[in-house]
Amino acid sequence: MMIELDLSTPWEPPPPPRQRRRWPLVLLVVLVSLAAFSAAVPQARATPAFEVEHNVLSVDGAAGRVFAGRFGSVGGNTRLTAYRLRDGAELWTVPIEPSQHFTYVDADVVVLNTTWEESGSGPATTVTVLDAATGARRWQRGYVQVMGRYGGLMVVADLAATRGFPPLPYDPSQDPTVNPTPVPRAQRYQGLDERTGGVAWTVDVPPGSLAEASWTGTGYRLDGFTELDPSGELRRRDLATGAVTETRQLRFAGTLSSYATHGEQVVVNLAGQRGADVFDRASGERRWHWAGDQFNWLFACGPQRLCAGDETGLDMFEAGTGRLLWHLDRYANFRGYAGHSLLLASFEQPSAEHPEIRVVDPDTGRVERSIEGWRALASDGDRLVAWRSTGSYSALLATVEPATGRVTVFGRPGEWYGAPECTVTEGSLACVVVGRLSVWRLPPEPAA
Q1: Which domains can be identified in the chain, with CATH numbers?
Q2: Helix (H) or strand (E) holding 70
Q3: ∠ CA(226), CA(227), CA(229), 5° rounding?
Q4: Is 437 helix (H, G, I), strand (E, B) or coil?
């Protein structure tokens, strides 16, 4: 059963049920029998495909499996359980530490991390890799931080190389709009075989230089790895081998606070300065200066486009020149693209009671469509999966087609409150809401 909502008029909840009359006993028996019969008929996409009702902490999914972290009953161990996506059958369950959390999952492995604070060195992380088919531990390594994955490799920062270097201390007298000066220290990055933990390559970055990984899509997938030194030399490396494949010279020299590569542009934040300089990667020339602060970073938001958002809204710039193309008030929660249209959402604050998704023309900033009352959960191709509250403990689940504004309701959870944790995997939505896992089938995507 799929319900198409007409968004031309404001949505209102259905009226409360009318008070029931007293029926003759015989008729009541007949009605009860019919009700029992009809309740046994599955209501397609109105109820979850399967549920785990208690003690669920987190969820992820891939390759026909749903993985749920669950805390045990009193005195019991925290466990990781794999369910078959098709029917909810339990495939395996293994004990894990309460502090272990999902990093990513795929067809072969489940990657968990544990983070703790080490005196004098700041946060440290242990990575544990399990076999996705059986739950058996494949390998474990301490003092590494996962940056992403590429092919069959996991790219990590080797935190053991920086042990003994305390994190940058908080200075209450420092101007928060000035780019901070990091503690100079050597860094080491490695490509590890995802299945065995064996080292495929190692890159050592000297003190004063910085390295940066860039991602594509979701699931920790990497599409670039670069390093930049204080003289402005930018090196691009092959993620499969760690070898340098390109060297460029940017026209600057100074202490680096941070940097990021976005296509043909490199955004550099120099320590002790305000804002960022944007360089052309090919020529090395500085193209423009952005006067924002360290709390509102420039980020890529389309081909040859950079954006910056804060509590006032979103600015979109032409990446090569810095020309401000448009500003949109209030909406700064960038949700990506659906076809040519840009998707923005309001943050939970200050609009927790009035959520909204806006479909925007990226060329002009013109709002093409407002979809009110819905909170985006995840993307599924060119559509969004969203929810809206219908009461203190109930909600609607739906897919939203930004191109048309069509909302297709596929679920009516009866116990839904608080902030859900959700993932979309292979045509299904899996959500954890206050310890309860529910898995829902998404309606088919409309024909092109």
Answers
A1: 114-170+177-288 (2.40.10.480)
A2: strand 65-70
A3: 155
A4: strand
3-state secondary structure of 332: coil
Give tens-digit pLDDT for 337-348.
Answer: 887 888 887 665
DSSP notation for 121-170: TEEEEEEEEEETTT--EEEEEESEEEEEEETTEEEEEEGGGGTT-PPPPP
- Enter the DSSP assignment of 15: P
Q: What per-residue string of b and e applies to 356-392 under the rule 16 or more CB within 10 Å gives b?
A: bbbbbebeebeeeeebebbbbbbbbebbbbbbbbbee
State the burial class of residue 69 (Cβ atoms within 10 Å of its Cβ: 0-12, 13-18, 19+).
Answer: buried
For the cut 80, the answer to whether the pLDDT of residue 42 exceeds it is no
By three-state DSSP, how is residue 108 classified?
coil
The pair of structure tokens assigned to 12 is 């209102």
Question: Do the beta carbons of residue 146 and residue 160 sit within 8 Å?
Answer: no
Asked whether 320 and 280 are in contact (CB, 8 A), the reply is yes
Nearest to 147 by CA among 51, 215, 218: 215
Residue 213: closest CA among 306, 115, 146, 165: 146
**pLDDT 10s digits, 54-78:** 899 999 999 999 999 998 766 678 9
- For residue 382, what are its two tokens? 């060119």
Comparing CA positions, the residue from 93, 159, 96, 174 lying closest to residue 129 is 96
Residue 350, preceding bond cis, omega within 30 degrees?
yes
Question: What are the pLDDT digits (tens) for 142-196?
Answer: 999 999 999 999 999 998 877 655 666 666 777 778 888 888 889 999 999 999 9
Sign of the CA dihedral running 228, 231, 232, 233: negative
